[in-house]
Amino acid sequence: MARKLLPGTLIVASHNPGKVREIRDLLAPFGIEPVSAGDAGLPEPEETETTFRGNAELKALAAARGSGLPALADDSGLSVHALGGDPGIYSARWAGPEKDFALAMRKVHEALAAAEDRSAHFTCALTLAWPDGHVETFEGHVHGTLVWPPRGEHGFGYDPMFVPEDHTISFGEMAPDAKHAMSHRARAFAQLVEACLK
Predict the structure, then answer these.
(1) Residues annotated in the binding site for substrate, as ranges?
(2) What angle do CA 28, 166, 117 make, to 5 degrees?
(3) Are 142 and 187 spatial neighbours (Cβ–Cβ below 8 Å)?
(4) Where does this protein hold Mg(2+) (predicted)?
(5) How many whole angstroms separate alpha carbon 186 and alpha carbon 31?
(6) CA quadruple 101, 109, 55, 140: dihedral positive or negative?
(7) What is the pLDDT of residues 38-94, one digit of tens each?
(8) At what angle do helices 17-27 and 184-192 cross, to 10 degrees?
(9) Residues assigned a catalytic role
């Protein structure tokens, strides 16, 4: 039986404003007030795990123990099949210290230059952690195809080059509500809601 999250303040273990905004929108109906780790003055822990799940749990536990409050962490990224799953857990690192995702998308495009297979998927591991060390982790995926040049001004990260299965527009071209309804984060979040918020 999953542990329930009660209404109140929740630390979102992220310094990424786009990600925090998306999580705030998803949590709005549940009486939970998300505060970003950056706003709470918490440092970003080094992501030393080798899986999305491991890094999500590491970040959530660090934020929960550092704040004394429940914390939610997301570790997500783009896995490109022709690149053996890269950039994967290193998706943000491909953007460099300036978090330049135009650069990261170009790196993916250049690495794929000779590849016919342009299939890829996003993964999101979402972990709720409590200060006592208890964790609940959920994972969501969305499959699609990569396009070049990037398209659209919405979303963040690799969204403008990713067209989800059964769609003709990229995540970057989708209205936020449309993306929220089907993204890897939304799929992980639906599991979290079912287990911990209902």
Answers:
(1) 14-19, 76, 156-159, 179, 184-185
(2) 115
(3) yes
(4) 46, 75
(5) 18
(6) positive
(7) 999 999 898 899 999 999 999 999 999 999 999 999 999 999 999 999 999 999 999
(8) 40
(9) 75
Is pLDDT at 23 greater than 90 in this prediction? no
Q: Please say if the pLDDT value at position 19 is more than 80.
A: no
Q: How many CB atoms lie within 10 A of CB 134?
A: 13
Read off the pTM.
Answer: 0.89
Would you call the peptide bond into 87 cis, given omega within 30 degrees of 0 as the criterion?
A: yes
Domains and CATH numbers, the chain: 8-197 (3.90.950.10)
User: In this structure, is the dihedral angle defined by the CA atoms of residues 140, 17, 171 and 111, taken in order, positive or negative?
Assistant: negative
User: Please, what is the average pLDDT of the chain?
Assistant: 93
Q: What is the DSSP letter of 10?
A: E
> With b meaning 16 or more CB within 10 Å and e meaning fewer, what string describes 22-35?
bbbebbeeeebebb
Binding residues for Mg(2+): 46, 75
- CA angle in degrees (0–180, nearest 5) for 153-72-29: 70
Sequence ranges of the binding site: 14-19, 46, 75-76, 156-159, 179, 184-185
3-state secondary structure of 66: helix
Of residues 176, 184, 175, the one with CA closest to residue 138: 184
